[in-house]
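Memo to structure team: turn this sequence into structure tokens by end of day. - J.P.
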Amino acid sequence: MRIGNVKLILHREIRDQLRDRRTLFMIFVLPMLLYPLLGMSFFQISQFMHEQPTDVLVTGARSLTDLPPLFENDRFATGLFADSKQAELLQLEFAPAEPRDRAEQNIDQREQARAAVQSGRFDAALCFPENFADQLEAFRQAIERRDQAPAETSGPAAVDVPLQVPSPEIVYTTANEKSQITFARLSSVLRQWTAEIGKTNLAAGGVPPTAAKPFVVAMADVSDNTDYHGAALWSRILPVMLLIWALTGAFYPAVDLCAGEKERGTMETLLSSPARRSEIVVGKLLTVMTFSIITAVLNLASIGLTGWLVLGHLKEFGAPPPIAIVWLLVALIPVSALFSGLCLALAAFARSTKEGQYYLMPLLLVTMPLAIMPLAPAVELNLGASLIPVTGVVLLLRNVLEGNYLGALQFSPVVLAVTLAACMLSIRWAIDQFNSESVLFCESERLDLGLRLRHLLRDRQPTPTVAAAVFCGVAILVTRFFMGFAMAPPAGFGGFVKMALVTQLAVIAAPALLMTFLLTSNPRRTLLLKLSSWQAVAAAVLLAVVLHPAVTWLQVGVEELYPVSDEIKASLAGLFNDVPGFWQLVLVVAVVPAICEELAFRGFILSGFRHLGRKWAAIAYSALFFGLAHALLQQSLIACLVGVVIGYVAVQSSSIIPCILFHVSHNTLALASAEITPELLRRFPLLATIVSPAGEGSFAYNWQAVAFGLLAAGLLLAWFGRLPYPRSQEEKLQESARRGWRDENDLDILKLLP
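Reply from structure team:
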């Protein structure tokens, strides 16, 4: 890569962007005006923002006599509120008592209250039983009699049976937010009133009221008089704002540098220059990064200044810590590089700036959950969270902004490594997009579903297209998602068998087979239905055996990073209580999934992704869909890695049979390892040299077995790598492009490509 060409492209792109007045306004002017104007608007609007009164219907209130006061002058007693003005927010209307049977009247008034709340005439209703005060008084007298009883008569016979006091009922509806607010207000009032009644009962029993609350907890905030007072608020706001503005600041320049150049007709001129594609991508990437960083810095500076002026004077909040500037700037560089690479790669797909703007929403839908998840109180910075892109950065920034440097330092290398790896992958993806002529110069297509369907059925290729592979994978995932909610949780092994067969046959195998016969002209080639050599079959089975110790260790590590909840463990344990036999379990868990999943993921989907022209990309994408098709996160992570190995076996052997046997062997070994017992180890001493007790009746492979298995697996994979395999037309073209020359056969390939 020549630095001079990169500099020329960088200067060219920056000059083009700076000539656009809208770009200058959005990056330099808008951030400095937006947040001060929002702050001013907040103060203006806050004058009209105040709590609104709510209407409450009260029934059975006439029975409340000889009790601590709950009502005063047709309102709740002001002594039950921390602020006496809050009593005015609950406007009461008392229902008149009707002269009829008390039980019938009680039911009648309760039904009337429910109807009044449901119709919207009242926001909530407070219903008291007719004999509420009488039973409270009886309860208090029972306490007095027990305390006045002589000591010699104490014992079980002298203790009165506690009375069951009927409870008041709050009638409200969750369909109305105002009703929920009223419910919260009434609950607070009744809690305070209940505490007053409790004090009265204590006094009746001769117990001082302070016995129920003998002390008051003192509070000391160690962040007072430090720069971190109120930092918890800013530690949640600033990292998320950093990500949002780094993303949006990178997206629009990327769209203009790719789709905009296509519209202006300057993309061809740039590509025909002496600069290499990688140099063009790096120059554009640095341009996008520059605007991403400037946008994020100016927006964060405006937020911080506004927060310092507005919230810095509020005691409960405080101004942003000054050290936040340093940490945010340090994190901004890799974050902007990550988003710039992603935006540049996505923008290369767009045929126009209007189309490119549509790609922002999918990118936000993927990024925002990763950025917002750390805001949950239960999510903390640990090794598992550090391995999640974007989430680890937000958690790391949250810790350093709160002053927790020790915890941040412990996981900062992991977060940095994951972020840099994600940056490299995004940049590599952008370079690949610019190396693809079909991506850069794709033409607009008229949407005609009928014509498109006829084209798919009439001009079928021997193997599916990339779009068909993606559609098949997404269809499987979406169908599995809805099927998981539609089917009832299995109660035993019979229910598990039914759910497993429906999932494998109807959700996974059926879409792949249906699309194979509809969209391809050679199903045998698509599904890799070809006999394989006995050496490849034996090597695949042996590969599954030697990899099993390492996969088991990896599974234990994944479950330590992301523990399985106790509820899921209990539900999974109950599925296999009535298993008729081991081989029936193998048939359901190993054989059926191996056939169905391999036909779908290593058959149809992998064959479609082979048209990308990169073998390892096709293997990785098919493994990703294979992992996502599993229900649990822990299973998905392991399945992705195992799927890469099976995909490599499928490509190198050009047959689905070794993949199915690998899958069957892998799942069978997982089931067999769960059957290991101390008695089995005593019967087979050789097995005791491979596994050892791991506590609580479980067993784990020794490290020697794991190391030997990895070494043997490496040799077997190297043997698979020496096998000749048929390459797709796109793979041959890519290999020729990497060599830098094309022979006569390669030129024939070019003519065959669309």
